[in-house]
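Take a sample.
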Amino acid sequence: MLRTLIVSTSFAIMALSAQASPEAEALIAGTASQISTTQTGVSPLTEAIDVQAIARFTLGKHSRRLSEDEQVRFTTAFEKFLIGTFEDQKNRMKNATVEVIGSVDRSDRDSVVETRVTQKGEDPMTVRWRVIERNGAWRVVDVEVLGLWLAIEQRAQIAAILDKPRATIDDAIAALDS
């Protein structure tokens, strides 16, 4: 299930576009362009998404009971999982087209941008992105596809693992590796 959610996040990178600020718009437009037209590797992905913030959010209440080392190990596994899934889906997303439908500014540093992503031979899909500015940089922290906010869904799945008696961070990491 987590793999499906991360695959959907990969779709997000292709459709990123924001009107929240010129800086956010430039970052996201540049990232989408690099991913869709070149073989740039994963750096556009890791630069556009705040992996650390999403990993911390995904751990939820469990992050308080984890050591710093355990949090780092989870974040590393989460990033590896995200990158691996993106690489698996990258060619499929190469020729997607994106149309910005609009955005809602939740605050000066928090916006939800709605886009329509169209892949050749498929029906258009509405995708919403939550983009937050922290420390002067705009980063994607969540994406909604088919009515599901993916970071929220990932959080529920990791919580289901870690809420089990005697569960450890290694169990959550193993779920990311599967």
The two ends are 10 Å apart (CA to CA). The beta strands are 97-107, 110-118, 125-134, 137-145, 148-149. Residues 2-177 form a domain with the Nuclear Transport Factor 2; Chain: A, fold (CATH 3.10.450.710). DSSP finds seven helices and five strands in the chain.
